[in-house]
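Researcher: Let's do a round of design. I'm pasting the structure tokens now; please hold your answer until I've finished.
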């Protein structure tokens, strides 16, 4: 599998790309895409990195797995291709933004507009077999994305990490909390949100407050 990833990440993660587990992972992914329908499209596997350079990263949102339905996943966590109906978690993200910031609910579920402002939309696992949630877990992706989080933690300052739900919260052990900001809450999925663990977290206004406090421009959510 050809590694089409933005130059700043290629340099930052150079050592990771040369490790045996990563080479095995690329072989696995190539075979899966050859034998099965997988998401996102192969050209979008590293879309989160290509849309937001290492230097520009100032907010990190962590997801778990790409959407496994047709035409949904576009390589950015929680994001869907333009014109695709918004999945329930994304609907709740947009509802919280509307409540938090008093803005209109957006038409497009494509979150590349966030990535272009410095939001790394990182899934723990970057690929999935169609209609089989979690099918590419424990193949090496988690080791790679954990290494990404550690790199950001060690080499950058004052990054805002949004950890939504139990799985994402476990990643706090990879982050230097003395240097970075952690915003954690329940997951935006209906199961969590409807039980009161998501709505009202105000993560989007809090992130903008923290950014402006350190002299950065706020994110247009």
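Researcher: That's everything. Go ahead.
Model: Designed sequence:
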């Amino acid at each position: 599998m050809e590694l089409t990833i933005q130059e700043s990440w290629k340099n930052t993660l150079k050592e990771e790309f040369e490790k045996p587990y990563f080479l095995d992972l690329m072989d696995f992914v190539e075979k899966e895409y050859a034998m099965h329908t997988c998401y996102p499209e192969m050209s979008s596997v590293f879309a989160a990195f290509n849309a937001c350079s290492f230097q520009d990263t100032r907010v990190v949102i962590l997801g778990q797995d790409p959407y496994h339905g047709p035409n949904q996943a576009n390589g950015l966590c929680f994001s869907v291709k333009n014109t695709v109906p918004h999945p329930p978690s994304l609907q709740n993200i947009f509802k919280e933004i509307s409540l938090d910031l008093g803005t209109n609910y957006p038409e497009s579920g494509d979150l590349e507009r966030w990535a272009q402002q410095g939001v790394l939309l990182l899934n723990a696992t970057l690929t999935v077999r169609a209609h089989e949630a979690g099918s590419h877990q424990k193949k090496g992706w988690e080791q790679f994305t954990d290494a990404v989080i550690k790199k950001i933690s060690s080499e950058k300052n004052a990054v805002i990490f949004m950890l939504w739900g139990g799985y994402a919260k476990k990643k706090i052990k990879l982050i230097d909390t003395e240097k970075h900001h952690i915003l954690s809450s329940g997951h935006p999925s209906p199961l969590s949100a409807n039980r009161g663990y998501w709505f009202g977290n105000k993560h989007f206004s809090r992130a903008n407050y923290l950014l402006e406090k350190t002299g950065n421009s706020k994110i247009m959510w």
